[in-house]
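Query structure, 249 tokens:
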């Protein structure tokens, strides 16, 4: 689960990792008339945290925004080099309005995105890029508005859902400190999840639920603590509810 949002990923991309607004109506297809469409597998608006409003968003907008971010990432140097993210480059081109549904909601202080897709994401690649030696990664863009900035991202793994239908999962709290070439400092905290679940009909699907806070105002000092958009406990509980919804009959 790359933290490419740190390299100015638009909010629409916040799923995959960061802002278009809302819900796209897409169906999963299939010959079984009793099979639930993908639109029935995302959380209903009344199950979202208080203060979040769902806005319309389209999968093709997400794919286009992610494509731009991936192109920009080619000019980024990662330290350690082995921690350069790879999962989005494999996952993003395969997403379509037929195999994926996207929901985006916003509050006054954060953006929430939920994506359900029949495209299976490489969660192992996400884990390699955000845990172990890659729990602390520095990215230095050489092009664009952040050229020369140092973007340091610390990822902290959170408990995974315990549901039997969960086959793989990675939940992290991502804290990013961006130091601009002029010495200005901007911070951001996000909560990211990638979960592979098995539907009752045997279909494996990818579930992503992410909550990203806003960029802080530019300061000259790193704050003692970054403010997350919600607590770790509230986020893991929300992912649990999302898994339950996505695996219902």
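Result returned for the query:
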């Amino acid at each position: 689960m790359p933290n490419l949002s740190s390299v100015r990923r638009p909010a629409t991309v916040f799923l995959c990792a960061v802002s278009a607004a809302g819900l796209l109506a897409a169906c999963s297809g299939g010959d079984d008339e009793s099979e639930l469409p993908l639109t029935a597998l995302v959380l209903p608006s009344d199950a979202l945290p208080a203060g979040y409003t769902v806005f319309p968003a389209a999968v093709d907008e997400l794919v286009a925004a992610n494509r731009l971010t991936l192109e920009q990432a080619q000019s980024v140097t990662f330290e350690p080099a082995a921690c350069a993210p790879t999962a989005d480059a494999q996952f993003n081109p395969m997403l379509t309005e037929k195999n994926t549904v996207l929901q985006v909601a916003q509050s006054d202080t954060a953006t929430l995105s939920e994506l359900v897709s029949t495209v299976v994401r490489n969660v192992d690649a996400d884990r390699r890029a955000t845990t172990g030696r890659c729990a602390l990664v520095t990215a230095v863009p050489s092009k664009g508005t952040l050229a020369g900035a140092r973007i340091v991202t610390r990822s902290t793994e959170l408990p995974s859902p315990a549901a039997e239908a969960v086959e793989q999962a990675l939940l992290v709290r991502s804290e990013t400190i961006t130091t601009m070439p002029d010495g200005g400092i901007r911070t951001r905290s996000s909560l990211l999840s990638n979960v592979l679940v098995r539907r009752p009909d045997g279909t494996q699907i990818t579930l992503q639920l992410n909550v990203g806070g806003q960029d802080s105002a530019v300061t000259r000092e790193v704050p003692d603590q970054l403010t997350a958009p919600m607590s770790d406990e509230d986020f893991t509980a929300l992912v649990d509810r999302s898994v339950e919804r996505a695996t219902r009959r």
